[in-house]
Structure of histidine kinase:
Amino acid sequence: MAARMKRDDEAWMGQTPSRSFVPLLALAAAASAAIVLYAIGDWALAAGFAATVVTIAALLAWYRHLYPPILSDRDAVPDWTVARAAADASSMAIAVTDRAGRLVCASDLFGEWFPGYPSPPAVNADASLIEGLTAAARAAWRDGEAKVEAIAHATLRLDVDIARTGRSEDYLLWRFTPVRQPSALDDVHRVLTGEAGRQLGEAGIMAVMIGGEGRIRSANGAFLLRAAGRIDANITGRDFAAHMRVDDKGRLFLAREESGGLPLRLLQVPLRRASQPGGVQNGAQDGPMLLLLIDEPAGGGGTSALSYIETLLSLLPFGLAMADRDGRVLFVNKAFARAAGIKDAETPSYPGDLVVREDQAAVADAVRRFAVGPQMSGDIAVRMREQPEEPIALSLAGVRGLGEAAVLLSLKDNSEESKLKRQVAQATKMQAIGQLAGGVAHDFNNILTAIIGHCDLMLMRHTPGDSDYDDIQQIKSNSNRAAGLTRQLLAFSRQQTLRPQVLQLPDIVADVSNLLKRLLGENVKLDVSHGRNLGAVRADPGQLEQVIVNLAVNARDAMPEGGTLNIQTYGVPANRVREMRQQILPISDYTALRVSDTGLGIPPDILSKIFEPFFTTKELGKGTGLSLSTVYGIVKQSGGYIFAESELGRGASFVIYLPVYAGGDIEQAKPKTPIKRSETWGTGTVLLVEDEDMVRAVAERALTRQGYKVLTASDGEQGLEVLGGSEKIDLLISDVVMPNMDGPSMVAHARRSFPDLPVLFMSGYAEEQLRKSIDIANVAFLPKPFSVNQLAEAARDALASRPAAE
């Protein structure tokens, strides 16, 4: 290839022409003269034309000698030595591959990370990684660039950027960049250069962070001022030892202060390398360190120096404590006490006293290992005695030169984080329980519909005084009580049917006050107070009354010896919500309802479970465990939030926040008064689609007794077949949830052929939830369980809503 390039250069760069060039030129001139002579017959003109041809050829040869042509981009060969030098100058591992996938250039760092210089994407034996890089390469050929983030290779995590490059864009440029992991060194740097570093300086403590090579990485202002003379001095990267001196007695001084300075006491805290998270490091002296320097007090002695260190630790925002070689606790700062759950004015004797019994031996052994031998640092997972269900990391570091102090312990205060985790877990659990409760209630409603319906049919054949009449009535009464329980389950799962109105909370409290006085009894006093300028809320008034009654009855049961029930309403503007810093409550304007008592209170271990369905602290047979779960469901379905607060012996408070209604029409919505019709007899053909046999049977009998001709189907597909038959259908009654084809899908198909067909949906789920998911106009809704009379009335009203025939 080199020989071919050399020959091309000689030809194009105008080197000495070959010997055959002159005869060829003469022959061309003679031929041209002969042609002219033959055509014109003039010898002088032919000779002049031949001379012109010779002159032009000579000029072209001379021009090519002066201005040789440049090779085309396609014929140019890249100078990979320049590309390789540029790649080595960067901090990335760089490789270049051609169209055939061959490696044509790579940096030295690429060879270090990937021995043998493999051609990307085969840089790793991991098949999934190779597949991912291959797909990214195809994308780069197609789109011009691609990226793969955080691939794992040995101990590295790399981001890979791929770009199409070259004059003809026939190469791929691969750039492998290490992902920078967060490090404890960054945290220490922020502390030293921030407010905490300034406070350390005011306390007379100089703090420096050095690398394993002994060079300064960061320092607080106190060290900069004394070691360099200026608080804004830049000494990063300088040798720490160059700023220190040691006298003949082995005492440590700042070099700048010469003989007038005070001796210093040095505390070394090893910092764990980011590449070895969570592990104990042997030989930590070779790694980064935090150095703390304090003036040696008069007379020396580790005990006096320890008081300086305690002052230092009390200023730091980290939870820190110190222990001696025997494992006894010498000092605990406030952040450590808060994280460990230590009460005021109490200091544990040993670190093991803070953890559960099973972890005490491990903590004691770790303290002994860190107190002797080389300085080390590391973490162990422990369970604190105050919070045994949540393991946390206890960091330990061996320290020297502080007299009795031998081990530094660190504990992160994650109480807020743990509280948030518990709230999220509780919300997730409540959501799962709500879905389960809603499904159970839906299935139970089908059973109750059949029971209540058959009771109604039997009561039509019996009159009061018959031997079976009272028994049937008792069965129906108990079924209605069971239906009430299912409504509570649906309320908890936020799937019940609500009739929201724009209203004022004080009006609801006033309406229910008389009932509360009878429920509370004579030994419980009711105290009601209202705030001013309360915003209107949008909710179901009947359900809000249920909320207040349930909370009041629970409060009464918590005050067996009597007490006071306080009901308070007040406004909570958005700026006050912002000041509350509540993680769950969005910032907005609310109207709050507080129901509090002076009873026994709720234990902390029970407080997180009170809204769960079927959870009750009452004795067997005296509570269903659905009272507070119903309250929770109604509040959440109304768009509000509820919080419980309690202290043992001082009662409990439930605070409900309902968002202020921001609609255009603030006036109360007047409910439509239904037209009362006692006549439920009807005519026409009804198509009944229901997958539950027992519900379909009782509904068919009930409609037949009212005069309708009833056709039945067990799912949507069968219903469409009946609709397509010869029989004209006047009314379609259908369940919502069915196998194969559900009710809404069937109605959507039916409306294409019968746009005016009246439809009545019956379901155990909430009407609001169904209407959000069912995009069908002009349909009626009948909630389960329903009686025979309710079904007849719903069918009559649905038929009456048909548009009049033109």
Q: What stands out?
A: The CA atoms of residues 242 and 255 lie 8 Å apart.
